[in-house]
Write a structure and sequence with these properties.
This protein is mainly β. The chain is built from one helix and 25 strands. A hairpin with a 5-residue loop joins strand 7 and strand 8. The chain is globular, with a radius of gyration of 17 Å. The protein starts with 5 loop residues before the first strand and ends in a 14-residue tail after the last strand.
Length: 296
Amino acid sequence: MKAHPVDTISVEVAAAEAAQLGEAPVWDHAASRLVWVDIAGRLVHFYDPLSRADTCVAVPETPGVAIPRQAGGLVLAAGHGFGFLDQDQRFEEVAQIPQRQVLARMNDGNCDSAGRFWAGTAGLNEEPQAGALYRLDPDLTVTRVLDHVGESNGIDWSPDDRIMYYVDSLERRVDAFDFDLSTGVISNRRPFVVIDEGEAVPDGLTVDADGGVWVAVWGGSQLRRFAPDGSLDRVIRLPTRQITSCAFGGPDLEDLYVTSAREGLSPEVLLQEPDAGSVFVCKPGVRGRPQRTFAG
């Protein structure tokens, strides 16, 4: 990768929660809070930036991501399927994915502008091509959209909804698809960005209001922003190596929240990176877009 100047933007700890596998931050505009998950801890977290309080609720399955529903509460990709977490924090499984010879768990996901929920899977032991990408429609129909996925991760759309960006971490690649919003059909898969540098791999991502694609680099202590043509635009350094995902939040969507993980780090590394597992926040000078909600 061509060298690029590292941004000197200030990064702060928002929630010092020491998550084992913090992931999938999502801004819940109606509640003015950040929703994120600790996959390994089976926890859904709620961070209030005004009080700086972070609360959480335990769920019976490993949550990959939690997205607000138009009907209230959250929809989760969790365990081996999808479920609802209602406003009283009760969990109900509503759909399962078909299991194959190699077991896989739900991982990251997102909603498109039509209110469909997209989420993928990863093999429980990182088996190659054991995962898939699924779409949960508002009528709770589950469709397998992609097969032979290594580790399904970040997903988001261009501001005009014509391109879907998608991460398969084991392939170390962010891909782009043509996207038909009216039907939810994807086509013309092609590489957008390859991140293949030692232990550094792409994880979660978000697209800002200008179409810039922000990618969390696991093993790289970085966020990278790519222009729509795939060229590297900015690099933001974080104080720990296992950066998992990012999302814009706050009343004007000017705050960029970043999740991280401490799972698998040695005691020596944790001494050097005491904020591993925290949620970080910075103001990169661009705005995000409102989070789409699940229509079911």
